[in-house]
Structure to design on (515 residues):
């Protein structure tokens, strides 16, 4: 039975006047400036206040509309609580003279934000082998054979290149990622460089934590900081390493707490199931979307050029890089000789050749239009996640480590931690260039931008292509809030088709250019 609530205090007053006149027939509660009218209206106002409070109380009884302490109590029933604000953590790279140290508690600062070393470290001479040096103009890109542990402030000595222009005693570098950096040279030596190339430097990696809480404590890789107090033998300027300083978040808001609690109710959890993993990962403040790939999930498909058989060993040659490792599962389909088809553990020979064991003695070579699907191996779980409320929704290395450590709390005892793969998705950034938009008003452009931003944050998935019809629909659904006008026509110079997303990748909106 629905509640018949009044729409205003005037409704209550009118009903009350009728009731009074019915009981006191000689009275006139409708008479202006009469004491009886004053009593009726005053009581009606207070009664309507009660109805307003009742309406709010009804909302508090249901989780999807509860707020404040009532939402907190609802969440507690389902084992949830408001995630507190967190500090940011990560690593900085300190330079100076070998043998000098930085002690725990040392303070570093940038733009008024301070960070403290959580452990001490001693500077030492280090080196890393360089697998390639390539030049574009005066900029040289160096790729190391392993993680270099560098930051933008480190001076690096490059040696061993046969083309001596590449060799520099104190190159000022710009770090691209954990194995790649760039520096400038004079001259135009042939590219790529040859020789046995080494990068040498003096540094120490120091773990730090922000002194305060919140998202504004996070720093991008390469950001420079200063020592608060000078230390002998240590450079005053230090830099954030390629993993960035991250994990700092503001206290969780009610909308996020409500969404997590509703998700817990709507998705019953079995131990270490997809929902269990999602639920646990979202206990880390700032984690929004979580993507879980379980055993058998198809990661990508490649065309097969040939399958030949020697004994029970099938040799497969693919048209493009199959992106598999030995031990991965591959599903072979399309061979006319059906013994070749099925799901097999593979042994990788090269980026385009792998082997598997085939039963029977099918004729060789195989015929048909044959494909290989790369699957998540049995016993393995791949987990990707985003932080949509951060400046960059792609998590940093330290944030990935934090989520993996949280998931290890629920990993089954018979499962190796190596079989739980937690990673940041690789961003596939797509720029939208409009050649036509009708009507082309500022407010409609604002609406189109908002719709595309919402689409990319709510409707993109790791490893799944973005359908052209879907992003076009997001544009067509835009409404000019000032006039109510809708998109009548538009044309895109790019993209012009489905957006291809590979395994471990996620689509991200780039720049939008309007005509």
């Amino acid at each position: 039975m629905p509640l018949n609530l009044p729409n205003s205090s005037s409704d209550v007053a009118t009903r009350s006047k009728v009731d009074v006149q019915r009981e006191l027939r000689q009275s006139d509660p409708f008479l202006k400036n009469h004491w009886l009218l004053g009593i009726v209206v005053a009581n009606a106002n207070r009664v309507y206040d009660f109805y307003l409070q009742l309406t709010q109380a009804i909302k508090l009884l249901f989780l999807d509309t509860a707020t404040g302490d009532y939402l907190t109590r609802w969440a507690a029933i389902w084992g949830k609580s408001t995630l507190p604000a967190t500090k940011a953590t990560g690593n900085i790279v300190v330079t100076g003279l070998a043998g000098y140290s930085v002690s725990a508690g040392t303070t570093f600062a940038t733009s008024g934000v301070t960070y403290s070393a959580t452990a001490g470290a001693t500077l030492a001479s280090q080196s890393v082998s360089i697998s390639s040096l390539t030049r574009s103009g005066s900029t040289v890109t160096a790729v190391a054979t392993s993680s270099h542990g560098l930051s933008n402030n480190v001076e690096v000595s490059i040696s061993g290149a046969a083309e001596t222009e590449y060799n520099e005693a104190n190159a000022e570098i710009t770090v691209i990622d954990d194995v790649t950096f760039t520096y400038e040279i004079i001259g135009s030596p042939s590219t790529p460089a040859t020789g046995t190339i080494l990068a040498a430097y003096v540094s120490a990696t120091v773990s730090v934590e922000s002194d305060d809480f919140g998202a504004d404590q996070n720093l991008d890789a390469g950001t420079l900081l200063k020592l608060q107090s000078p230390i002998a033998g240590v450079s005053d300027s230090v830099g954030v390493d390629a993993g960035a300083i991250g994990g700092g978040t503001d206290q969780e808001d009610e909308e996020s707490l409500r969404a997590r609690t509703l998700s817990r109710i709507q998705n019953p959890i079995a131990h270490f199931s997809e929902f269990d993993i999602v639920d646990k990962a979202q206990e880390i403040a700032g984690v929004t979307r979580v993507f879980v790939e379980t055993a058998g999930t198809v990661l990508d498909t490649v065309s097969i050029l040939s399958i030949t058989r020697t004994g029970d060993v099938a040799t497969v040659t693919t048209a493009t890089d199959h992106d598999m490792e030995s031990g991965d599962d591959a599903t072979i389909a399309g061979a006319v000789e059906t013994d070749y088809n099925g799901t097999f553990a593979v042994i990788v020979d090269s980026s385009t050749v792998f082997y598997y064991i085939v039963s029977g003695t099918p004729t060789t070579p195989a015929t048909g239009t044959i494909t290989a699907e790369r699957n998540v191996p049995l016993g393995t779980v791949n987990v990707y996640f985003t932080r949509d409320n951060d400046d960059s929704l792609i998590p940093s290395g330290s944030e990935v480590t934090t989520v993996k450590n949280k998931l290890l709390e629920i990993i089954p005892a018979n499962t190796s931690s190596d079989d739980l793969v937690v990673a940041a998705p690789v961003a596939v950034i797509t720029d939208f260039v409009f050649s036509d938009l009708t009507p082309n008003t500022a407010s409609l452009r604002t609406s189109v931008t908002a719709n595309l931003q919402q689409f990319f944050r709510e409707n993109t998935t790791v490893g799944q292509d973005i359908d052209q019809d879907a992003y076009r629909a997001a544009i067509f659904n835009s409404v000019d809030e000032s006039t109510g006008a809708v998109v009548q026509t538009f044309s895109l110079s790019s993209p012009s088709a489905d957006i291809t997303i590979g395994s471990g990748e996620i689509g991200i909106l780039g720049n939008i250019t309007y005509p």
In short: The chain has a mean pLDDT of 91. The CA atoms of residues 156 and 430 lie 35 Å apart. The longest helix spans residues 35-60.
